[in-house]
Amino acid sequence: MNINGTPTRTIRPLSDHGGVEIIDQTLLPHRLEFRTLRTLEDAAEAISVMRVRGAPLIGAAAAYGVALALAEEASESRLETACARLLATRPTAVNLRWALERMQTHLAPLPAAQRGEAAWNAAAVLCDEDVVLNQSIGRHGMELIKWKHEQSSRTVNVMTHCNAGWLATVDWGTALAPVYTAFDAGIPVHVWVSETRPRNQGAALTAWELAQHGVPHTLVADNAAGHLMLHGQVDLVIVGADRAASNGDVANKIGTYLKALAARDNGVPFYVAVPGPTIDWRLADGSGIPIEERAAHEVTHIQGQAEDGGVTSVRLAPAQSGAANPAFDVTPARLVTGVITERGICPATQEGLAQRYPEAGVCRTA
Ligand code: MRU
Predict the structure, then answer these.
(1) What's the DSSP call for residue 288?
(2) What is the mean pLDDT of residues 139-165?
(3) Which residue's CA is the nearest one to ligand 1's atom 6?
(4) What's 138-360's CATH class?
(5) In terms of CATH architecture, what is 2-129?
(6) Is 138-360 the same fold as 2-129?
(7) For ligand 1, mutation pick of 28, 58, 97, 163 (most atoms within 8 Å of CB)
(8) Domain coordinates in residue numbering, the chain
(9) Is 242 one of the annotated active-site residues of the chain?
């Protein structure tokens, strides 16, 4: 999507394969800085500290992390050790495992000396595919927004949570792809952006990227969601996912479950945008999804821009108070109106998903 009118992807290899350029998302929305990753450790650090984040982008960054690792060292064992290092960076988004397994399957049969160049190519293909999947989710999801508009002839109010926009993917986003597609098609759409404590990816990232594209949006505190739904100000909720189990249970940023509950109580359709690589066919339901516990510091402190323009962190809570920080929650499939996949919209059930992905079939344990 556009940054200051220029089409930009969130990740791209340097033309000489000397590195991979990313947007450092820890600095947004205050500073737009590109950063070059040159080593396996650079890539692992960027994922761990969330310079790159969002399930599909984590997968893409890991794929390039493998290419960087093989450029550093072309030994026989390097592929396996690099994948192990990258896999340990974040636990919830299954796209990480999916991308690394795909890289391993592609590269392991090759002689070690040929893996380096093949890794750059495989990572580029994976990124291009991500864009195509998201564009397709955009087209399918747009039909929901279009339908709502045709029913009411007024602006469609979509609520989202966290950032499942283009910053969370290579381009277009998952949950926001339908919004961009509808907006570009001239359908009047407005987005309620929930701030998404504790890291505020809604306030910092979703609001920023919607503004860059000119999409009307309003930032609200997470706690405002129920109130807005109760008062008829939300037509549709669309969120992304970090991992969907094969029965349609979905893990997404903490607070998603509460939105799904409020949506159900108020008859607001609750959709989850899920590309194929985000479905974990090894899990029968969401109870097996690992939930990342992040640092207490993210809850006790808040990051923002100081008067002098610098990005800084300030303490919110008493120094003696500890904090728990589960970063994701699982929304049960029964609260999900439908899953927007790149292959169309389906019920959040095992049958619904299996029909869209017959090659994956029903849950298969590892
Ligand atoms: O912790 P993050 O910022 O990586 O979490 C991101 C989310 O929860 C997104 O909603 C999810 O990855 C979907 S991204 C298209």
Answers:
(1) G
(2) 98
(3) 54
(4) alpha beta
(5) Up-down Bundle (1.20)
(6) no
(7) 163
(8) 2-129, 138-360
(9) yes
- pLDDT digit string, tens, across residues 190-231: 999 999 999 999 999 999 999 999 999 999 999 999 999 999
Query: In this structure, what are the phi and psi dihedrals at residue 228, rounded to the nearest 5 degrees?
Result: -65, -40
Which of 242, 249, 280, 329 is an active site residue? 242
User: Distance between CA atoms of 138 and 50, rounded to whole angstroms?
Assistant: 25
Average pLDDT, rounded, for the chain? 97
**Torsion sign across C-alpha atoms 244, 248, 249, 253:** positive
CA distances to 5, 131, 139, 180, 314 from 215, rounded to whole Å, are 13, 20, 17, 8, 31
Element (H, E) at 250: strand 250-253
Q: Are 250 and 286 in contact (CB under 8 A)?
A: yes
Share of the chain above pLDDT 90, in %: 96
Are 255 and 161 a contacting pair, CB within 8 Å? Answer: yes
**Global confidence as pTM:** 0.97
The CA distance from 177 to 216, in Å, is: 15
Write the DSSP symbol of residue 293. B
Flag whether pLDDT at 366 surpasses 50.
no
pLDDT confidence of 4, banded at 50, 70, 90?
Answer: confident
